[in-house]
Structures are given as C-alpha cells and as structure tokens.
Amino acid sequence: MLELLPPELPWLLVIAFLAGGIDAAVGGGGLIQLPGLFTALPQQHPALLLGSNKFTSMFGTATAAWRYARRITIPWRPVLLAATAAFACSFGGASAVSLLPREAVRPLVLLLLIAILAYTLLKKDFGALQRPTVVGRRQLAIAVALGGAIGFYDGFFGPGTGSFLIFLFIRFFGLDFLGASASAKIVNLATNVAALCWFVPAGQVLLAIAAPMAVANVAGAVTGSWLAMRGGSGLIRRLFLGLVCVLIVRMGWDTLQSLA
Fold first, then answer.
1. Domain enclosing residue 202, as ranges
2. What is the pLDDT of residues 164-218, one digit of tens each?
3. How many domains does the chain divide into?
4. 135 SS3 class
C-alpha cells in the first residue's frame, strides 16, 4: 500500500479539503477536485480518477447532508423522492454516454447556465426567503421528474449538477438558498452512491489516495457547511452566482475548444 502512495498526496489532500468546503456550501467541488486528480496523476486511467473522485466526494457530501439535516428544515418527501429518482436515472445517464457524444450537450448546458445567472441576477429576492409550497401530488410529481432529469444528467455529463439542483429547489419548492443547498446535498449523495455502485465493483477506485482524500474532504465539508449556516442565504447566493460564472467560463472555453 505504501508504495502506491503518490508524492502528490499532500497536494491532493489540500485540493480535497477545498473541494469539500465549496461543495458543502454551494456545490461544484468537482470543479476543483477532479482537475486536481487529473493534473497530479496524469498517468492513471481516467475511469480510475473519476471513480476516486466520486468515492472521495461521497463522504464529504454525506457529512454536509447530515450537518444540514440537523439544523435546516428540509422538505423530506419531495427531496427523498427526487433523490430516489436521481439514483435510478443516473444509471441511464451513464449508459447513454456511448449513444450520444457529450460535446453535443455542452452548448445546451452553457445556455441553461447563462439563463440561470440572468434570472438570479434580475430577480433580486430569488432565494432570499423561505416560501415553502404545499406539497401535494403535483409537487411530488415535479420532484420525481426533476430528480430523474438531474440524475440522468449527472450520470451522463455532470458539471453544474449542484447549481441546477439549488436553482430548481428554489424555483419549484420556494426554498431559500440555504434550504435549497441543504436539499441538494441529499440528491447529490444519491447520485454519488449510484455512480459508486458501478465504479467500486469494477475496481475503478484508487483507495490508496481516495481514502485519505475522503478524510480531507469530510474536514472541508464540516468547515463549508458551518460557514454556510453561519453566513446564511446571502452568503450562499453570492457563492452560487460565483460558481455559475465559473461554470459558464469553463463551458464556454470547452465549447470553443471542441469547435476549433
């Protein structure tokens, strides 16, 4: 085991801590952790790095979800239905990778992110206050549909999943940014577990680095969730807008690169 420990591990632990903190607050930890893995371990197969990223993230996401659930009121019925649908549909998304090139999806995702950014900026009170809706059959059906769509997307492509979840929980269930971020963690946890149901049996996890990174990710998640609950919806709104801008820049650059 010791000979498998890369000299890059200290750097990866810092990356995992930062990713866990950002992901706990507003999602998007994969934007830091996954590129860090690919940069530090370029000799490894991409599937191993993707599986290691999911393994590490699962523990941080679970920690953040648990901490939020103790302090934040979560609408459990629609959230659990969304998580169940996301878990099931993430398998479909993963299997669809071979049917449709991911490059075909990137421009659509870019447009959706720009629309989310514009909507959030123009609607100043968006996510500022809790305006919970009555959860009836229609709302539960929406939760299943949204969870299924997000789960499929996360299994197929992935970037921006947390941002989409936060936006949709505010838009359709009247949550504020803090409540939406907490609810998103439950759904994210389901999609991470679903992905690991494939990665772990296939042996696509580098435990020698994923296990210590998971510890660092959990430490980051504890810190990030504490800062989020202390800063409230105002802080998460600012982090959310910053993350969406980063996603737009990244998607725009990747789109231009694919067209070149």
1. 2-259
2. 898 889 888 888 888 898 999 999 999 989 888 888 888 889 998 999 999 999 9
3. 1
4. coil
Q: Look at the block and give the residue holding tokens 């953040």.
A: 64
Q: What is the pLDDT of residue 2?
A: 44
CB 140 within 8 A of CB 88: no
Torsion sign, CA atoms 64, 222, 225, 15: negative
Alpha carbon separation from 119 to 123, 176, 179, 246 (Å, rounded)? 6, 15, 19, 17
* 172 vs 169: CA distance, rounded Å: 6
Burial class for 55, CB neighbours closer than 10 Å (0-12, 13-18, 19+): buried
**CA separation for the pair 242, 247 (Å, rounded):** 9
For residue 213, what are the contacts with CB-CB under 8 A and spacing of at least 6? 12, 13, 15, 16, 33, 52, 56
Q: Enter the tokens of residue 187.
A: 């759904």
Contact, 178 vs 236, CB < 8 A?
yes
